Amino acid sequence: MRPYVFVNLAMSADGKISTRERRQVKISGPEDFERVDLIKADADAIMVGIGTVLADNPSLTVKSSRRKGERTAAGREENPARIVVDSMARTPVDADILVKGAGKRIVAVSAAAPADRVDALRERAEVIVAGEQTVDLAALMEALAGIGIRRLMVEGGGTLIWGLFKAGLVDELRTYVGSVVIGGSGAPTPADGDGFLAEGEFPRLILAGVERIDDGVLLTWQVKKEEGDRSLRG
Ligand SMILES: NC(=O)C1=CN([C@@H]2O[C@H](COP(=O)(O)OP(=O)(O)OC[C@H]3O[C@@H](n4cnc5c(N)ncnc54)[C@H](OP(=O)(O)O)[C@@H]3O)[C@@H](O)[C@H]2O)C=CC1
Ligand SMILES: Nc1nc(O)c(N)c(N[C@@H]2O[C@H](COP(=O)(O)O)[C@@H](O)[C@H]2O)n1
Question: Bacterial bifunctional deaminase-reductase C-terminal domain: which residues (predicted)?
Fold first, then answer.
């Protein structure tokens, strides 16, 4: 069994999620950031790759006091569990994700992660070991389902999202297309990594929603299920 996995990202009109220097940029407007806060508050956990932690230093906390209050009134932590996918335990111990806001933190590492760095992270987070050299995302998902995570939001970046698509672990993709052009052949895109070669490998999507928000558009896609998929229902 694995959680229901939905990816949420913001890209420019030319399909970039940040600059070629991997500098965080505001692509969403105020209404879209509200939407993101709402879906975050509804999730059991939120995941990013170590590249995003090192580039953006996000806290991934719920921003609205009302939504935090609603979570605690329902017996949940103020924030969803925050998860970093980090094979070599490179997450700085003072990263915002580990120090800001209440709630569980999980760092997923591989067996190759240096023991001293893993021990330092254990002071601030639960550490899950999945995979030998890099994090085995399918094994990680099983472990997350085992600790009660049913709805998992993925914020990025492009390398992690690619890894999840490659492993057939994405159920839904929500792409906000903002009204800017970033450009740059080396600027990150929603799914980077090696890319698929054969058309038969491409994950197939079903368009489930189109909504105008701020000066852009939100596209919601369902990913067609593969045979034997063991995702929990969304
Ligand atoms: N506009 C938007 O919505 C968003 C934009 N961003 C942007 O994205 C950029 C960061 O993206 P990126 O550099 O691709 O980094 P990611 O956040 O995607 O992290 C990628 C890293 O995750 C680790 N990882 C471990 N196991 C796996 C696996 N099985 N599959 C894939 N990755 C794995 C790898 O590092 P290791 O091997 O060391 O573990 C890998 O390099 C930043 O510029 C940020 O601003 C990020 C989020 C949202
Ligand atoms: N939805 C969305 N729109 C944008 O324009 C963005 N730049 C991002 N970035 C993501 O949000 C994270 C920041 O989170 P905190 O505010 O620190 O909680 C950042 O790391 C990206 O994942 N998202």
Answer: 3-219
